[in-house]
Every structure is written in C-alpha cells, then in structure tokens.
Amino acid sequence: MRSKLLGTLLLVAVAISADVSRGKGRSEEDTPCIDDNKFYRNPYAPARDVWSTTECAKYYLCLDNEVFEFRCSQGLLFDVSRQICDFKANVDNCDVTSETRPPRPLLGNGNCEDKHFACGDGTCFPAAYFCDGSVDCPDGSDEGWCGKVMCYLGINVQLFQNLGASRSLSHDPNKVGKHWSRRISSNHVRNDPNGASACDPTKCQLPNCWCSVDGTQVPGNLTASMVPQMIIVTFDDAVNAENFELYSKIFSDDRKNPNGCPVRGTFYISHQYTNYRDVQYLWNIGHEIAAHSVTHRGPEDWWSKNATIEDWFDEMVGVANIINKYAGVRLKDIKGLRAPFLRVGWNRQFLMMSEFGFVYDSSMLAPFSDPPLWPYTLDHRPPHGCVGTEQHCPTRAYPGLWELPLNQIWAGGYSCPRLDSCSSELSGEDVYRILMLNFKRHYLSNRAPLGLHLHSSWFQNPMYFYAFTKFMDDALKLNDVYFVTSHQAIEWMREPTSLNEIEKFRPWRCGTRQFQPFEVACDLPSSCKLPSRVLKSYRYLHTCFECPKEYPWLRNEFGLE
Ligand SMILES: [Zn+2]
C-alpha cells in the first residue's frame, strides 16, 4: 500500500534537517512529478549544476500530482539513495536523479523450506543470506530492503542522531493514507469533501486511536475514581535568566507526586532569547521540552492564515533542530508543539506534523465543556467546535496524531482560555479559588487532565506565585493527583492504568534516564555574542556546546556563516 511506504520514506528522509524550500512549496514548472513516494532530484537540472551545493541540496516529492520542493539545511546535501540530508563528504550521488531499488523480498511469504527466505522472484536462500552485505538473490532483493527493515525496528534513529540534525519519527507501519491536497478552500469540516469522519468508537481503539462522541469519556473503561487526576502545567516562550529560577521554585524537588517522583511540566520553547543551557538542565531533570517556533513572528493571524506547510516545517522542525544542537535534547524527546498565540494552522500545520513525526499538538482551544474534555487523536473530527475569531482548526483526519485541547478555565460566572488570560484584576485569593474550582470540576467528574497553561510573566505578581504553589501543595496532599508532562498524559491514555497499578506505571517513573556526558547541562555555558543578518543586530546564545558563527535562525539552524 502506498501510504505505508510513504510513512517509511518520510521517516528516513525528510526527518533529517531537511529544509523545505523558501517560497510557495510548489517547485518551478519544469520539475516533473515522479509519484512513487520517494524523494527525487529534478531530472531536468542542467548537467553542469548537479554537483553544485545548491542543486544537490534540492529534492522533491510528488503527491497527488503536486510537486513539493525541499532543500537540505545549509551545509548538507541530499543523498538520494539513503533518502536523507547528510554532510557533503558522505554524499556521492548528486548526479543520480531517483533512487533505484530492487524488488521487495517475499521473505517468509514465499514457498521455501524451514529457515529459508524467498527473494522477490521466489528464489530461496538460507535466512542468514538476507542483509548480510552481499547480494545473493538474482533480483538483488536480499540486500535492497535492509534499511527499511531496520527502520521498522527503530534502529535508524541512531543514524539520525549521529547527524545531529534530524527528527526521529514515530513510526507506525499501519498508518493509513493521507488524502490531502491544498486545493480545498473551505476551513469547515462539513464543507470539506475529504473531511474527517465523526468518532467511531468501534474502529478507533487504543493505543493509537482515541475518541468519544462528546469528547468527555474516560479511556480504558475505567471509572473516574480509578483514574489518577493528571495536572499538566505548561509554560510557553523563551527560557532564560528571567524565569529559570521561577521554574526551579515551582517544580521544586520537594513537591512530589504520589509515586515519589518530583512534579514536572512541559516547556514550549521559542528560540529567540532562549538560554539553551537552562533548557538542557530542565530536560535533564525530567521536564518535557516541546516546540513553539523559531521566530514567534507576528501578526498573530499569519499562523492561521498565511503560514504554508513549509513555514510550519521551518518554524517547528527548525526550533527542534536548534534545541537539539544547542541544548543537546534528543530529537525523539521533542514530541509536541504549540502554535504561537494558539493560532492553529488549519490542515497545513497538522499535515506537517504527521509527515514529520510529531506526536501531539496542544494549541486548540475548546469551548467550555462540563464535564471537561479528554485529549483525543485526530483520526476523527474533533469533538468540539473551533474557538476564536479567524481560527482554522484542521478538517482532515491525521491518524494517530494526538490533540491536547485547552479546556476553558471556569472563573465563576465566566470562562477564560488560559488562567493567565482571565483578568489582571484578580487577587491572590481569587486565583487560588479559581484553581480549586477547576480542579474540582475535573477531579469530581471525569478526571480529564487539568491543563494549567501559563507564561512566566504572570508570576510577577508574588500573590499569584503564592496562590499557585499553595494550590500545588494542597492538590499533592491527595494520593491520586499527579503533575505530569503533556506527553506523560498521552502515555497514560495510550495505556490507561488504574490507581491500583499507577505506582508501577513506567512512563511516570523517574531517575531511570541515562545521559551521555555531553548531554548533561554544564555549570558554565559559553555566552556567544552572535551577529544575525536577519535581525540586523547581535543576540546572545548561551550553550554548553560550541558557539556557532551566526545567530541560528530559520533555515540556518546551525548558525553557519
Ligand atoms: Zn508564545
């Protein structure tokens, strides 16, 4: 099936610090469509240019007759046989247009005796001959698919990491096809002829699919009283000296979940002004690091109206690459993203996310719901309307991609999308009361995770800090309340575990992590004063790694000159 292959190839290929080209994503008219689900070079590129770094960094993908142009990050070239971007020294096929591959072996599906496998043409060989490095099958199929086999086993993640510039993709070989095109103009699912279908609980099953008709159902057939009440605290934007201490105080090691692990949160990082040593430290101690764009640019509605798939890629894969390079955070740990200003980017955002292996989004505002909504996967239509003026929620299905919607905060008489957008007039007592009100709204009903989505500046009011931490301490007196990261909440939903078993639940354990020496945050980071051509000024970048030459930015994540 075509889609299965597509998943695999994208996993290997675009994953690697590939940059989608500037412009409209549609390549110039002269690049033909080669629709075999592989990346290819333009066969019409002038022969004298094929070895140039510009030409050899370009590659294309054709889907539904539409050609998409991509370009590797600065300093990298596209390797058409491995379908990845890699350093110049490792790429020797700039003159090869498309990958040629032998047929797929039948392996155990042929008619061979015990301990033998079948080649693509049915010839049998001992199983050990397959992927041993030398060609035995007449059709070459014994060696031609080894990379893919490894991919299915997840081994290729290592290759990505060696390049320091990749994303590892969550890889589900059963992923169904993505039928999409950019020709549709309506943003409403009812008008989208290819729109996602309504929730069908008989078809949608955990761990990879979850929906319920009104979005409020507890997963795993558990009664609410057996469900740990999850509280997801998130912070957006740059992490730096202005807020690092605040984060250390809020997530102090004295505040422990009932399983003995310290409370943890999720940081949606935007690049500018971020101190990458601090990010590295937060990651080391078990917080989740997620993507919130390179530029965080305005105007706000650019994200929902104008940003192309390529822009979403540049911004979100770009910031993931920067975090990986300067904070050492493993790419496979950067699983989620949040749109700047919570400006959802319609199908374009979600298409990019599913193609590039993000696990979840947490940008969609849900209308007030009592009981509150549980997260869900986008296999089906979201169980709620799209809140906000000029918002563009996705209309298509994105199987296996999770959405952690933002439930409204009930402030008694009115509701607000986020606690820190409620009202600046609130007193500390008000804040404590609102927190408790919403906690009970979740805890005493369906125990949907309670999301507290904040910005550090809100804590400039010391009364709010006091109220918030008092709320945390009071909630932690209960033995069924856990402060977890966004992705830990998804892990729980994938495998709903009752309170009886929760202390043994692996994804919530702590201290199991082994770090390489370079992955551990240093005490004395370099303060790199770096010019930025784009920003037309200097920026400081604090990192435990080597200073780049230029301030990293879109399409130049490694800060090359
Ligand atoms: Zn933001």
Automatic annotation (TrEMBL):
Residue runs in coiled coils: none
GO cellular component, one term: extracellular region
An MF annotation (GO) of this entry: hydrolase activity
Keyword Nucleotide-binding: no
UniProt keyword annotations, A-Z: Disulfide bond, Signal
Signal peptide: 1-25
Any Gene Ontology biological process: carbohydrate metabolic process
Transmembrane spans: none
Tree of life domain: Eukaryota
Gene3D superfamilies: Chitin binding domain, Glycoside hydrolase/deacetylase, Low-density Lipoprotein Receptor
CDD domains on file: CE4_CDA_like_1 (cd10974), LDLa (cd00112)
One Pfam family here: Ldl_recept_a
Disulfide-linked positions: C112-C124, C119-C137, C131-C146
Domain Chitin-binding type-2: 30-96
Name of the protein in question: Chitin-binding type-2 domain-containing protein
